[in-house]
Each structure stands twice: as structure tokens, then as C-alpha cells.
Design goal:
Blueprint: E1 8-11, H1 16-32, E2 36-42, E3 51-53, H2 55-59, H3 67-78, E4 84-90, H4 94-104, E5 109-113, H5 119-125, H6 128-135, E6 140-143
Parallel strand pairs: 1-2, 1-5, 2-4, 5-6
Antiparallel strand pairs: 3-4
């Protein structure tokens, strides 16, 4: 079996697990010399078209407005990555929005975080990471 990985999509929401996820995704992109995109999902009421900041825009100083994306991009730039992008995707179902974006844009790997909830808390709150794993068309790394 051959594993093809051409670009990585990292989900971020600014939470503590998300911070670890961003760090992991940056290190993975560095080791594999692959482009890295960060995605955050916002309320579907904000439209149905994602807003994308590509490498050229980011390197020119046109930075995303979302704090979670801004922090991730700044961290990646500080780490020396230059093939990065940021995506602000509207959607009601976070996991489905992440996976749909990855599939439509030919991402070969998704990195997401997990708060590590178990038992009743996981049942009541749900788990975006578990849903991403279930819906994904490609390998998913869950960072804890």
C-alpha cells in the first residue's frame, strides 16, 4: 500500500487542545516538507463560502480576523513555514464542514485535537474529533 500525502489540513478553534494540535501539525509539515492549512469553522449564518488566506496573502501581511487562525498562522510563520494557508469555513456541523472542505480541496491528511472527554461528558457534549475520524476520506491524526 502506498500512502500519498501532499498537503495537511489542521483544525483549530483556539482551545488548549487546539494549541497542541497546531504545534503538532506544524512539526509534521516541517518534517514532511508539505503545505499546511489551518481551518476554523464559524456559524453558518455568516454565509456559505469559505474565506481563504493563501501563502501570498499571509506573507504580505493580510492576516485572518479570527484569533484562532491568527495565532496558528503566526506560530507557523515563526517556525519558518512559508507554504501555509488559513481558512474560515461557515458550517453548522463542525466535523462535517472540516471533512467536506478537506475532500473538496484534495487534502490528504487532517489533524484535529481532542479534549479527551470520556463517559457521560463525551456522550452529552459530543466529540468533533470522533466525528472527523468517522466522516473522513483520508487519514486523521487526533492530538491529545
Amino acid at each position: 500500500m502506498t500512502v500519498t500525502m501532499d498537503k495537511i489540513l489542521c483544525a483549530t478553534d483556539g482551545s488548549m487542545p487546539s494549541s497542541k494540535t497546531v504545534t503538532y501539525a506544524i512539526e509534521l509539515a516541517q518534517r514532511l516538507a508539505l503545505p499546511l492549512s489551518f481551518i476554523t469553522v464559524v456559524d453558518a449564518k455568516e454565509g456559505d463560502t469559505p474565506t481563504i488566506w493563501d501563502s501570498a496573502a499571509l506573507l504580505a501581511g493580510n492576516l485572518p480576523v479570527d484569533k484562532s487562525l491568527l495565532i496558528a498562522v503566526e506560530h507557523a510563520l515563526k517556525a519558518g513555514l512559508r507554504r501555509i494557508a488559513a481558512v474560515r469555513a461557515p458550517g453548522a456541523d463542525i466535523a462535517r464542514t472540516i471533512v467536506d472542505y478537506a475532500e473538496k480541496n484534495s487534502y490528504h491528511h487532517i489533524v484535529t485535537g481532542s479534549a479527551g472527554l470520556t463517559g457521560a461528558k463525551r456522550f452529552l457534549i459530543g466529540s468533533v474529533a470522533a466525528d472527523v475520524v468517522n466522516y473522513a476520506h483520508c487519514p486523521v491524526t487526533v492530538v491529545r
